[in-house]
Structure formats: structure tokens, C-alpha cells
């Protein structure tokens, strides 16, 4: 994506990582996504296990997130790793968000997220590790008697594929008792509450990963590659239902608008790129809530 297009995208959508209009809750969950395209070199599946929990330290609120994600990819036949075109990407992160309430209308946040992203072909090394984070102010107010949240700050993130410094501007508001809207990047979402326990949402999401290939991919003409830049854009439709105060589940369907890969050498020079065809996908998940 050209820099001019990125700047326009940031100005139109804003940037952000969470819907801060919702209340933090302690939970643990699992999500599985299956990509339906039968063509060669497509994403096969995504599995994600995560937990969120919160505590206080003096005057600070701490929100913790642990996440383990395993992606299985079927690459073009000309790319191979130990004779196989199947690539498993392991992504593990721990994020802690420290927030301090300056007033009834403003919170200051600092988030740090050490992350391991690799195909784990060899023992873990410093090449597998990345440090992401962000700092922002969260402003709360009312617009035409409707509550809103405005997030302003800066983030070092991988939402556009490779790690880079990006501004943070996210706006969320509740249109009515049942309808809420969030405009942001990497996600914009409309959520509608189906009383008493269901929620229907639709959104546009940008995601990316920068993967260390500790067991390199070998190209037919260019030799080996040690880094993989991966970025994708998806349209999603999700339905979630709260069974009781402990359990909830979610079903989703979506469409990948973009799914691009860039293979790079140890000097991070691009050796090869390829773009996969748009494809539909299905997802399901379950969540256990602790409070």
C-alpha cells in the first residue's frame, strides 16, 4: 500500500486497537476460523486461545491479555520449507494496559506488548521477539446527548504488516440503547443488541503479522528467505449469544478482501511477493467469563 493511501486511510478511519466503550471483564476464550477456498496456496485455518484479566496497582488500573494463535498456511508450490509448502505460524503475546483516570472525562493509557512470532523451526532466539506498544488519551463526553469515547495517541504496531509507528485516533459512540458504532483502524464496527442476550455486529478489519522464519523458506531462484510480511483485510459478520453469566458463544462469517505476502531475506530486502484471491471464511468461538 502506498504511503499516500495509508495517510488517507488513517485520516478517514482513524487508528485504534480496542472498543473502549465497553467494560473490561475477566474471561478466557477460544476461536477457530476456517477458510473455504479450495484453490492452492490459501490460508487453511486459524486457532486462537486468549484470556483477559484485570487488577489495580495503587491508582493504576491494569488490563492484561494473554494470546496464543496458530495459523496454518498452504503456500504456492514454488515455496517450500523442508520439502513442504505448508507453513505454521505461531504467535504468542502478553499485553498489559496501564490506565490512570485524570478526571471524569479523561484517562491516560500506556500499553506494552512483547510478542513472539515465528514458524519455530529452531530454538527460540531474539529474532523471534518483537516489542509493540502504544500511548494514548481516552476522552469521554456527550454529543447530542449521546455518550462517546475518543482515543488519541500513538502506537508501534504491525497492523499494516511490518512493525511501524502509527497515530491512534478512534471514535466510538452509542446511537441508541441497542445500536453502537466504532470508527477506527484496524477495525470499524457496527453493533446491534438483540435483547435479551444476543448481539449482532458487522465490521471492516485490517490485520498483519511480521514473521521470523527460523527455518527458512527456499525459493527456486532467489535462495532462502528469513522474514515474512503478511497483511490481510476482511469484512466480518458475527453473532454472539450469552448463555448465562458464565458462558457465551460466537458464530461468524466473512470475506477476505486482501491477503498479501512478502518474503524477505535476513537484510529485510524483498525477494518475492504474491497476492491470494479473495475468499470467504467461517469462524466460531466460546468464552468463559469470570465476573
Automatic annotation (TrEMBL):
Protein name from the UniProt record: DUF6268 family outer membrane beta-barrel protein
InterPro entries (UniProt xref): DUF6268 (IPR046235)
Top-level division of the source organism's lineage: Bacteria
High-level lineage: Bacteria, Pseudomonadati, Bacteroidota, Flavobacteriia, Flavobacteriales
UniProt domain DUF6268: residue ranges: 123-287
Amino acid at each position: 500500500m502506498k504511503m499516500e493511501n495509508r495517510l488517507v486511510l488513517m485520516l478517514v478511519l482513524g487508528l485504534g486497537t480496542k472498543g473502549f466503550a465497553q467494560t473490561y471483564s475477566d474471561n478466557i476464550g477460544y476461536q477457530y476460523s476456517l477458510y473455504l477456498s479450495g484453490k492452492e496456496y490459501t490460508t487453511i485455518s486459524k486457532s486462537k486461545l486468549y484470556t483477559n484479566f484485570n487488577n489495580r496497582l495503587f491508582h493504576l488500573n491494569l488490563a492484561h491479555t494473554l494470546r496464543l494463535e496458530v495459523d496454518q498456511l498452504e503456500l504456492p508450490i514454488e515455496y517450500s520449507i523442508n520439502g513442504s509448502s505448508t507453513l505454521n505460524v505461531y504467535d504468542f503475546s502478553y499485553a498489559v494496559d496501564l490506565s490512570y483516570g485524570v478526571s471524569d472525562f479523561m484517562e491516560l493509557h500506556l500499553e506494552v506488548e512483547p510478542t513472539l512470532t515465528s514458524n519455530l523451526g529452531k530454538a527460540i532466539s531474539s529474532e523471534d521477539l518483537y516489542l509493540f506498544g502504544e500511548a494514548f488519551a481516552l476522552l469521554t463526553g456527550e454529543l447530542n446527548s449521546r455518550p462517546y469515547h475518543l482515543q488519541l495517541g500513538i502506537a508501534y504496531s504491525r497492523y499494516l504488516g511490518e512493525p511501524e509507528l502509527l497515530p491512534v485516533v478512534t471514535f466510538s459512540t452509542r446511537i441508541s440503547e441497542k445500536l453502537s458504532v466504532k470508527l477506527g483502524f484496524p477495525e470499524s464496527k457496527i453493533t446491534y443488541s438483540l435483547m435479551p442476550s444476543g448481539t449482532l455486529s458487522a465490521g471492516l478489519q485490517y490485520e498483519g503479522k511480521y514473521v521470523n522464519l527460523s527455518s527458512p523458506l527456499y525459493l527456486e531462484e532467489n535462495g532462502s528467505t528469513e522474514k515474512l510480511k503478511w497483511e490481510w483485510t476482511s469484512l466480518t459478520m458475527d453473532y454472539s449469544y450469552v448463555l448465562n453469566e458464565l458462558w457465551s458463544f460466537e458464530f461468524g462469517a466473512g470475506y477476505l478482501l486482501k491477503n498479501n505476502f512478502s518474503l524477505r531475506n535476513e537484510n529485510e530486502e524483498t525477494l518475492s511477493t504474491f497476492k491470494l484471491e479473495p475468499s470467504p471464511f467461517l469462524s466460531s468461538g466460546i468464552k468463559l467469563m469470570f465476573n
